[in-house]
Amino acid sequence: MPDDDLYQALGVAKDASADDIKKAYRSLARKYHPDRNQGDAAAEERFKQVSHAHDVLSDPDKRREYDAARVFGGGRTPPGGGSGGAAGFGDFADIFGDMFRRGGNRGAGNQPPPRGEDVEVEVTLSFEQAMNGAQIVVTADINATCPTCAGSGAKAGTSPRLCPDCRGRGVVGRDLGGFSLGQTCPRCHGNGTIIDDPCPTCAGAGTVAEHKRYTVKIPPGVKDGTRVRQAGKGQAGLRGGKPGDLIVITRVTPSRIFERNGDDLSIDVPVTISEAALGAPIEIPTIDGRVKLKVPPGSQDGRALRVPGKGAPKLKRSGRGDLIARLRVRVPESLSAEQRAALEQFAELDGSNPRTGLFG
């Protein structure tokens, strides 16, 4: 496949972000994977094109070299003069010479195979599960290491051979008159090796699509959006590289009575007029039971009382936050004759006017 078609192969723009490239690759790889297109030679070739494009564009160094080759290749004159010689280029020649030297150190024999991509899944937890921790089962569609070729991509009894054009580096030099610019090797597509007899199970990809189920331990104290990482359970690395991670993103259902602010929890606690005025011992709920609380005499509506250590578990530290009890004074909607008489007598004895401050 011509290198000029790498962005087109993934259907992304030239300035696509790394995330855009990843999403495009995943979608196309699932669509054209040999396991889902048995006997379809066109789909197999398309899968190879997509894999090659992703291998180049997902690697910052390879992509930088590829983009530079597109700009200054094809007979175009590099910036700095019409002759194309190294004289007068100054830092430009040094920069691209250094780029090629770095590229020349890459390859099958000098650098570990690329690590697999991370896989993200979302799970919904109840508030109680988030506070207490839980074990949940998650499922994910991933590309696992091919069991037949152990990720090499080569047919049993054979192995990939060193690319004769780049000698395993994955890049070749293009002479631009006075200096060389590294570009992805068109023969091995940057892999550094060539597979003459592809594995029949994975068609040379080194990976196969699998539907995985994992049991994941969610620690106490997670919040909405917390990322729980499961090492080595993501996409398989190409050519036997280390697998990526599985990242479980938690979505927590709000509690009916508790509100969360960081590690602290808050709760509205109804109290009667007499409890607020006279003070009283009461019980309030916590995430793990009940706790006794004393309402101070003369408490006003909205007063906050702090209960240390009864909040949410601290996710990355020991201990727990605090529980904030907000007093809500409840006024009876109906009164008995005795209650009314008592309140009228209290009003006569009180004689105060709480609204005097409103008039200056």
Commentary on this structure:
A four-stranded mixed β-sheet has the order 10-11-15-14. Helix content is 25%, strand content 26%. It has helices at 6-10, 18-32, 41-57, 60-72, 91-104, 127-132, 273-278, 337-350; strands spanning 119-125, 134-145, 161-162, 171-175, 180-184, 193-194, 207-218, 227-230, 246-252, 259-261, 264-272, 280-286, 289-295, 304-307, 323-330. The model is unreliable at 74-109 (pLDDT under 50). It folds into two domains: 3-113 and 139-206, Helix Hairpins (Orthogonal Bundle); 259-350, Urease metallochaperone UreE, N-terminal domain (HSP40/DNAj peptide-binding domain, Sandwich), CATH 2.60.260. With 360 residues, it is an alpha+beta fold. It is built from eight helices and 15 strands. A hairpin with a 4-residue loop joins strand 4 and strand 5.
Q: Care to give the gist of this entry?
A:
By secondary structure, this protein is an alpha+beta fold. It contains eight helices and 15 strands.
CATH class division of the largest domain: Mainly Alpha
Number of self-contained structural domains: 2
Work out the helicity level.
Answer: 25-40%
Annotation, overall tally of beta strands: 15
Q: How many strands, what sense, and barrel or not for the largest sheet?
A: 4 strands, mixed
* H and E string: HHHHHEHEEEEEEEEEEHEEEEH
What is the 3D shape? elongated
Residues in β-strands, percent: 25-35%
